[in-house]
Amino acid sequence: MTRVAILHNSPQPTWSSRRLMKALSELGAKPVYMVWGYTGVGVGSQCPLRYRGRCLDVDAIIVRGFGRGLSVEKYMYRHAFLKAAESEGILVVNPADAIFTARDKFTSLRLLSKHGIPVPYTVVSENPSEALMEVGRLGRAVLKPITGSLGLGSFMVSSIDTAYYIVNLLLSLNQPIYLQRYLEKKGNRDLRVFVVEDRAVAAIYREAPHGFWKTNIARGARAVPASPRSEIVEAAVKSSQILGLIYAGVDIIEYEEGFAVIEVNASPLWRGLQSATGIDPARHIAEAVLRRARR
């Protein structure tokens, strides 16, 4: 029986983790829930990967949560653990390097742009003067964490005075300044396209509440089924391929001049998407993982 670990930072299985465990069980696999805090890895040992002090015996690991606000050292350790798992022949989904590239918003957008995917004008700097100059030039801009998620810590600014305080806050927290041109979304909504193994399995519009600009479901946006045009679907699939992801949630904004990929999520949530479309991505992910693990 194929053993598949669901790896998360949460002590208890999250909703999406439970959906994956259910789908894996229905497909004849043995799901195992794992928490990062109990993992271990060694060199020169017959038991290189450990969980709760015992040798880790799984065929695949689905990384569902990596943790927010991690120290550099924890970041390095968790990457090392996943790379060690891959070197031991364990399938890691999404792959370790792909997860890290996707979590780095600037590097992922740079790679997408290099391959012809439209993305917003974006600048990262440690120089506050440069950041404030860009805000003044753009008129409206978004300041956000370079590795954040769920819309947390993102600010839309339209004046240098407001930007001044946010820029200095970021610098006081030893964070780089990640700044993006603000794009006026058509209908005050964006698209989330869910891609699994080079195929868009579902898509939704995420409509922001009246008076708000953030379209994250976690921030109160409403999910509505969507059937995006072919060029947007192709861009979503290609974005996932470029970053080396087996599954992804691709966020896209349609605006007056066209469309732009804003972000590619390596561990996307899908509760709102499933509720709106009736499509369960967990089944598609589980099938993809088991196909690869059983090769």
TrEMBL record:
Supply the InterPro entries for this chain. ATP-grasp, ATP-grasp_RimK-type, ATP_grasp_subdomain_1, Rp_bS6_RimK/Lys_biosynth_LsyX
What keywords are annotated for this sequence in UniProt? ATP-binding, Ligase, Metal-binding, Nucleotide-binding
This entry's Gene Ontology molecular function terms read: ATP binding; ligase activity, forming carbon-nitrogen bonds; metal ion binding
Protein name as catalogued:
RimK family alpha-L-glutamate ligase
Domain ATP-grasp intervals: 109-290
Q: Does the keyword Metal-binding apply?
A: yes
Record's PANTHER family?
BETA-CITRYLGLUTAMATE SYNTHASE B-RELATED, RIBOSOMAL PROTEIN S6 MODIFICATION PROTEIN
Give the signal sequence positions: none
Q: Does the keyword ATP-binding apply?
A: yes
Q: Which PROSITE patterns match?
A: ATP_GRASP
Q: Which GO terms describe its cellular component?
A: cytoplasm
